[in-house]
Amino acid sequence: MSSQVxxxxxxxxxxxxxxxxxxxQYMVPESLTIMKAIEYAGYKYIRGCGCRGGVCGACxxxxxxxxxxxxxxxxxxxxxxxxxxxLTQLPFYPANRATYEFDNLEGVPExxxxxxxxxxxxxxxxxxxxVCPMDVEVMDYIAALKRxxxxxxxxxxxxxxxxxxxxxxxxxxxxxxxxAQLARRITGAYLTPSAEHLKTxxxxxxxxxxxxxxxxxxxxxxxxxxxxxxxxxxxxxxxxEDWSPQSDxxx
Amino acid sequence: xxxxxxxxCTLKTKxxxxxxxxxxxxxxxxxxxxxxxxxxxxxxVYSLADDDLIHLIAPVRDLVRAKEQGADTxxxxxxxxxxxxxxxxxxxxxxxxxxxxxxxxxxxxxxxGGEVKVVHLLDFLRDDYGxxxxxxxxxxxxxxxxxxxxxxCTLTRPREVALDRPDKPTVLQDxxxxxxxxxxxxxxxxxxxxxxxxxGNQESALRRSQAIISDATKHGADALALxxxxxxxxxxxxxxxxLEQNDGMSELPVYYISQLxxxxxxxxxxxxxxxxxxxxxxxxxxxxQLLAG
Amino acid sequence: xxxxxxxxxxxxQWRRKIMEISGENVYKCMQCGTCTASCPMNCDVDxxxxxxxxxxxxxxxxxxxxxxTPWVCASCHMCDxxxxxxxxxxxxxxxxxxxxxxxxxxxVEPSNLQPEEVVDLPTIAMVAGMRKFTx
Lengths: 251, 293, 135
Known about the structure:
By secondary structure, chain B is of the alpha/beta class.
């Protein structure tokens, strides 16, 4: 009992450090993320907060440390506070997003040029890459797109979470992340070879290969379903390439 | 000597014919080069404002990439890229104050001070490889092909980066002679085609190009040889519009110098990418028995 | 055309700005007209380069404001290599463009470009055009 009390006491006594949210100082526990620190300080999120897991891109945050000229960025839900940091979140940054009927595209570079002619205003200053909280080489994917290499742009921009910080810093006023999204869509739809096994699988499904099994599952009551789930055969973690289940009923 | 190659955006899109033919020719000549693995658009035009350093960042960053690769020479094929990179290089070598500002701004890159030499295919072949040596390698001389050399602006102007005398250059003539072509000189060969005026002021650009094509034809040229994808757009790609608008003009095929080089070296025809030229370009080569089929 | 050259019309700060941005001394021009004779765009410009140089020498900002010359200039550098006084005139034209563009006004608005045109143009035309005509 006493050890539990000690633990709680210790947590309460976590060291408080000063941070500045939009210019106002708050004392917050040093172990918190920016997002939790902002909530600790009394703010309530209605925007600028999404997955809290570092993938949705809603909580892009810009901050500086005292005495530094550098702009630093991070996701509020992932970045731990530092003493004396001053910050603001940028939940949204206006950026031109072209409208297009994806099915009408052929997937050629010229379509990207047409939808986003401002692409050619890039001056390769690299402010975008420097500000990216996901360390995406934004300037390099823009360079790839200017020379029509959609696949390469998709590869480089793969980790983009669409937070928009690149657009906020752009000298040429480009909406980089929207352009990259179009590039990835084109890559997915037109440039990546379609998987042969997928075609076979779809054909099998359409031919009714799994209908019986699915019907059985749908008809099963809760108890039955639980049993089926817990007793299912699982691939051992150490299984080799040649492993296959004993029953091929669901293959 | 380590030779790195800077392609430029247009060579990877609309001017594949310039690139493919050039690279196949370099291979045929046994010239070793390494394409830069990482590069960005050079900006196409050099910043002319004294206080505008931001537009120098793009070309300098490419020069940094070349330095990182350990290159001592950077080869270009597009004359606009050549011009922009060479001028940025001069500035980085000569202007101490601006060099410092630019290097400080690009704090994520290694410092650059003009260590790499920027060359164009033409002066590379003339000064490093040698036009005499080139002439010896020709297996299919361009006999009977009357070609006018078209320099445009960026190979010979401004003076600081000129491959040759700005008022009376001869490098392109010498190159074409080495290929066995019959050179037809004409006064407009150093005049501007209208360049990026095609954006928003197409009329002026077409008028310029019309004058150049007519001048070359008047002097008896069968074809025009050039190195700039924007000149090629105005003089070659847009020629059908010019011919429609001007009665009595005859079509003048436009080639990249690299295509003529590849033909003369007997390189396989598929690298010429003549599908990107006017149809007449293929016909003429066939008529002169320079292309199989 | 008669033009009033007076304290009222001479814009000295504008003239100094041009020399600062271009890095060129416009007073070196002696009006020989070689630039005009060399200009490939001389039939498309409202005023030839020689006249533009004169207007700058006299600080005539307002008169120059409506002329298309800086925008039609293709920076071909023919005037530059031939200038008897060694003035890099394309830099002066660039300064005139920059003074306008730095007011955050585009000369060519990218979204107004014809889609067919953008598809047809080579990358260098787009890049060069954006650099010369947008802010």
